[in-house]
Backbone:
């Protein structure tokens, strides 16, 4: 197990390194930040002083080496625009995105698994078919459009919920959260639902397919032949088996919810990392873009590791061992 | 004395898009306490569905449409779901064909065993665990304490089937339905498992319904035999009667297909043709198209006729190998 974790750690470093190189080159190819950052009226001396201050006068490879050196000490550079450390900018915005992502994932899991089970147990009943029809909508409607419709209905027409922003936050353990106040909830519920919709549809379909498949297995029939109650057959024998693929997908999707909350954050003006990224791309603020993507990659790696560990807890056939590993 | 299990006129049909599949069509038999009944037939003859029907485990689109199933004189078709659940795994148990598939891969053996006890008996977890361990020991699993904490994939096929047998026998059932429990195993293991079940059933006075396509298994195990074809019992009698002096041409065909009965080097005998599709089966002898004794009379389904005044001996055939009324 420990050998496994160490090896995964080394692999992660390689992935992070490759990612930083790609992003560095990619942002360089998009355009020159100087054209955006510096007042066009500035004279040549001012211009060169600014370029030198940002370290952009050096050749690209040298800039990258400088970046790597400071990155090794945990410093991902300063934002060109805000002159603050890029990492701090991101970490400041992270609680908002995390809160949104976790809320969305909770909605998807808490609704998706029971609905999928229900649809899997009653594939021919009206309720089962209705759930599946609903999930097709969840899949096919574009997120931004659903977001706009939600705002139309609940903010503009009914006036029940605020259309944008995060609302008041409360600090716990140094992290700002908004789910502790009613006003915070009112701000959170719509963007979270919007972000959850696609994942909800995915989980419903996955759970339903797994349930249908598990129900046909001999071990389910054998469990019933033992005289177990229906609740136990479904709740233990079926659910334990279908949880294996579901946990994998939840893990992967959680990463993508964090990374791609951008659309929802833009629609609802949610002050999260996604919005920061869009703003930084518009300003070609390279350190922030690079830092953002590295943070996202790190989150993905951490989630994948957690999924692997959880997976082995759920499926005894894939125990992580040092020998086989 | 009422028999332990009495099945009468059982019809289990599957309502599919292609039509009604009469998987079990008018099946009647009885099993006494401690008796071993062999239910023999080819794949698709309805023998497994007969077993599921008794256990109340027929899945839609299948449904028992007629007949009665009495366990110890009590009609179990009239029971509600909860009463039926209390019978399953308690008074009657079932062992399945493929031991690789019957144990849940993600649950430990101890859990899979104790849950079967706790579903029926109000005992402590520790008592249940103790009973589970003893049961594992009885079916010949070495160091049962350790094996209780293992997962199914850590067992071989033969060992898994032993675990399944131990689970089936956990609550001391009166009746065990064994659905080809040795078919998926190596021949050497088959012999051991056969011996083990036979021994345990005899010790506890458990009645066995042994579903198989293998006549050689039946020969050494069963007291009585029912031969099924296309959802019907076509011949029944004691094992000696059916194997030594068959009445139905199909039984004769089955016996002829057993390799060891043929002369060495000769071509294996087989029954011509294929089993008929069970979809919308006409009301005629289902075997007539493969039978060299068939004539116009076989267009009408033959009833089960008792042979020689013995109510347990009979066949469904217009032209049995020994002419009616067979001695």
Residues:
């Amino acid at each position: 197990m420990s050998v496994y974790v160490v090896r995964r750690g080394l692999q992660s470093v390689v992935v992070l390194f490759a990612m930083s190189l790609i992003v560095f080159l990619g942002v360089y190819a998009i355009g020159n930040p100087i054209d955006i950052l510096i007042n066009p009226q500035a004279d040549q001396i001012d211009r060169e002083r600014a370029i030198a201050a940002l370290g952009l006068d050096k050749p690209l490879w040298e800039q990258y080496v400088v970046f790597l050196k400071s990155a090794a000490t945990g410093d991902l550079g300063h934002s060109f625009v805000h002159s603050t450390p890029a990492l701090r900018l991101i970490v400041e915005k992270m609680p908002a995105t995390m809160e949104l992502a976790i809320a969305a994932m909770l909605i998807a899991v808490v609704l998706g698994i029971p609905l999928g089970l229900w649809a899997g147990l009653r594939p021919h009943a009206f309720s089962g078919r209705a759930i599946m029809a609903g999930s097709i909508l969840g899949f096919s409607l574009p997120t931004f459009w659903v977001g706009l419709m939600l705002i139309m209905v609940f903010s503009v027409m009914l006036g029940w919920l605020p259309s944008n922003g995060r609302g008041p936050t409360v600090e716990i353990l140094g992290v700002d959260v908004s789910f502790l106040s009613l006003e915070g909830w009112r701000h959170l519920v719509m963007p979270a639902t919007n972000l959850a919709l696609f994942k909800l549809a995915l989980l419903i379909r996955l759970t339903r397919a797994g349930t249908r498949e598990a129900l046909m297995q001999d071990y389910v029939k054998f469990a019933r032949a033992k005289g177990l109650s229906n609740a136990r057959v479904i709740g233990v024998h079926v659910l334990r088996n279908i949880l294996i693929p579901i946990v994998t997908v939840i893990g992967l999707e959680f990463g993508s919810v964090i990374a791609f909350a951008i659309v929802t954050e833009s629609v609802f003006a949610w002050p999260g990392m996604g919005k920061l990224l869009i703003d930084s791309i518009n300003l070609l603020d390279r350190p922030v873009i690079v830092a953002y993507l590295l943070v996202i990659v790190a989150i993905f790696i951490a989630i994948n590791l957690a999924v692997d560990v959880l997976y082995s807890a759920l499926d005894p056939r894939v125990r992580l061992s040092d020998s086989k590993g | 004395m009422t028999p332990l299990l009495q099945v009468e006129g059982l019809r289990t049909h599957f309502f599919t898009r292609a039509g009604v599949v009469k998987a079990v069509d008018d099946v009647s038999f009885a099993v006494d306490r401690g008796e071993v009944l062999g239910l023999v037939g080819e794949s698709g003859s309805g023998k497994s569905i007969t077993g599921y029907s008794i256990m109340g485990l027929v899945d839609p689109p299948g449904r028992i449409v007629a007949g009665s199933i009495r366990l110890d004189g009590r009609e179990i078709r009239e029971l509600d779901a909860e009463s039926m659940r209390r019978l399953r795994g308690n008074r009657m148990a079932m062992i399945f064909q493929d031991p690789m598939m019957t144990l849940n891969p993600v649950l430990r053996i101890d859990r899979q065993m104790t849950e079967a006890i706790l579903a029926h008996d109000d005992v402590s977890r520790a008592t249940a665990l103790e009973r589970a361990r003893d049961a594992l020991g009885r079916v010949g699993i070495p160091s049962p304490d350790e094996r209780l904490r293992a997962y199914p994939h850590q067992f071989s096929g033969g060992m898994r089937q032993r675990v399944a047998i131990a689970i089936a026998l956990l609550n001391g059932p009166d009746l065990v339905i064994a659905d080809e429990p040795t078919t998926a195993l190596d021949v050497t293991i088959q012999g051991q498992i056969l011996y083990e079940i036979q021994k345990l059933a005899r010790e506890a006075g458990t009645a066995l319904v042994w579903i198989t396509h293998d006549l050689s298994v039946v020969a050494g195990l069963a007291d009585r035999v029912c031969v099924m074809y296309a959802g019907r019992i076509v011949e029944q009698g004691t094992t000696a009667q059916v194997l030594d002096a068959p009445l139905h041409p199909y039984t004769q065909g089955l016996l002829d297909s057993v390799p060891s009965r043929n002369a060495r080097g000769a071509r294996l005998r087989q029954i011509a043709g294929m089993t008929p599709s069970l979809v919308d089966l006409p009301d005629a002898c289902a075997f007539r198209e493969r039978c060299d004794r068939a004539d116009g009379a076989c267009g009408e389904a033959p009833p089960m006729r008792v042979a020689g005044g013995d109510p347990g001996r009979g066949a469904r055939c217009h032209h049995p190998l020994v002419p009616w009324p067979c001695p």
Residues 5-91+173-310 of chain B form a domain with the Rossmann fold fold (CATH 3.40.50.300). Chain B touches chain A through 30 residues (CB under 8 Å). The first strand of chain B starts at residue 5 and ends at 16.
